[in-house]
Amino acid sequence: MTFSSLLLYTSIFCGLYFQIFLLVTFFEAQGKEKRDRQLVQIKTSTLPTVSMIVPCWNESKTVENTLISLLNLDYPKEKLSVLIVDDGSKDDTYAVAMQAASRLNKQEGLARIEVVTQKNGGKYTALNRGIAIAQTKGTQFIGCLDADSFVDKHALVRMIPYFNNPEIMAVTPAMRVHEPKNILQYIQRAEYNVGIFTKRVFGMLNSIYVTPGPFSIFRTSVFKQIGVFKEAHNTEDMEIAFRIQSFGHRIANCHNAFVYTKTPETIKKLHTQRTRWTYGFLKNAIDYKHIFFNKKYGHMGRFVLPAAIVGLALSLAIAADFIYHIVKSVTTTVHKISIIGFTAPHFTFNWFFINTETTSILAIVLLAITITIVTIGKYIAEGSAKPSRDMLYFIVFYGFLAPLWLSKAVYNVALSRKTPWR
Amino acid sequence: MNPKKYLIVLAITCAVFLTGFLASNYLNNQKIDSIKNTEDQISLDILSSEAQYQLLEQSSCDIVTGSILSDELNTLADKLSYAESQEGFSSADVQSLKENYSLLEIKDYLLMQQIYNKCGATPTSILYFYSNKGNCTDCTDQGYVLTALRQEYPELRVYAFDYNLDLDAVKTLITLYHIPSVLPALVMNGKVYDGFQSIAQIQAALPSLTLQASSTASSTMNSSPTSFSSNTNR
Known about the structure:
The complex is a heterodimer of chains A (about 425) and B (about 230).
Chain A: H1 3-39, E1 50-56, H2 63-71, E2 80-87, H3 93-108, E3 113-118, H4 123-137, E4 141-144, E5 149-151, H5 155-159, E6 168-177, H6 183-204, E7 216-219, H7 220-226, H8 236-246, E8 250-261, H9 267-287, H10 298-340, H11 358-382, H12 389-414
Parallel strand pairs in A: 1-2, 1-4, 2-3, 6-8
Antiparallel strand pairs in A: 4-7, 5-8, 6-7
Helix pairs in contact in A: 1-6, 1-10, 1-11, 2-3, 6-11, 6-12, 9-12, 10-12
Chain B: H1 3-56, H2 72-85, H3 91-119, E1 125-130, H4 137-152, E2 157-162, H5 168-176, E3 185-188, E4 191-194, H6 199-205, H7 207-214
Parallel strand pairs in B: 1-2
Antiparallel strand pairs in B: 1-3, 3-4
């Protein structure tokens, strides 16, 4: 058996194991979740107070719509306040936010929108400023919403009941892509739908290791216990989740609390964003290495985090092997043309020449399970399992895109190179 | 954390793996059977050709219709070459089929020689010796050349033999033509050519190839595109 075959068998086995594990967990927990949800219904009159923090940096174009989406939340007005923290934007974000806040406060007859500005210090400093203000107000829960995201009106009221479990310190939403316009954004839409499925399963396994910037809700008291946001390799939303888990608390996922976020529209921007995410994951994983293989952290320590690292390593190895074979094939073709000249390839179908190696058959099984997961994700997100072009784009192209940022992130970690935000 | 679930998932994954392995095995066996069937068909074709040749000895060359060699011999070469390059095929099965194939090639070669002699035509065939052992890059290149020639001249017969095949008939052929151990080696018009031969060199060594190509339509011997064998050593 060649190294290439061994790598392929290992990757397929790990991939199959991970995907089957997710599916088994998903179906196993279906009935249990329904029962849990019935137990956590809360009367509107007893809903707690929530402060939503919107950190902004050069978001003048989107901040007003983000604000409006928050005010449209199906939640008692007197119990929801909004705090916009301008992190020293270079554009007129502060002025736009002030103007919108003044107008909207007047419209509602309530002063529930507050806008503050500060010298640019990074997203985490803006969040911490908001947390400090919310703590002085004594709000029970603190939410964060990136200024390029918009929230579904039912999201908050669906998330709050999860906090009936005193162990739960944070609840994450189901993130969807806001108005995709090109192939890259359609790919991301399917990817985010898959993310909704995996987050839901990770929630069931108490293994969520990121509380995304767009609309994660925290119990205010958690910041007193574990501290506030840190710079954390430009992934403060990941570090805080690692820290919550590290303290032995729980993070839940509300699969039908939808939040819509704008996604990168070019490969360059996507590459930068994902490199930062992957770099942040690796660096935080190093910082919290004590979680790995530690039985105290259950599925997260023993399975989810190690599987993420193994998956990353195998993806890169497979990509490298694929590139090697492509280069070899091109070299052979060029050499062949130099010997016999160019001859038009002629194809005749014969079933004998269909690849029936074990790895090919297992790769088809793996693909079928991937399609199943993409479909379940779409069903949870959109209420429809109908095949769509974003699913096709995702299945065809994602495998070629992901290694680009995975390799760059690993390179940056290996050489201790900083990964910029933008 | 329930370890039972991990074991159940492991059992399911292993079951999927086993099913994949068994399915692959079944399909590959079907392929081996199809090669065996093709060999049986070729064997029958050669028997028929031999009978035709015996009839030919008592009559004119005009009755030869040209369907002497089965097209399957060519397809068989491709299939064997493919099976050799893939994982999952039993190497013993492939080896045995390859030996059969080599015997069929030799029988066809001898029969064609007899027919050419009887009818006075110029043979357009090549004996090609290659090696799968070590790193014979020239053998790979020679395979490209022969495949290209095969496509350009349908009447060309290429009989490919694995130099290292443990088969007495092939060893006899090697001894008979004094084939050197440095490969590839070609035999054209009874002469041995060592090392890689380009398209132009082969055309020069086989002038009948280009002549016959231009008169294929009018030639009795080549009135239909007979196939030939060529293991291109892929």
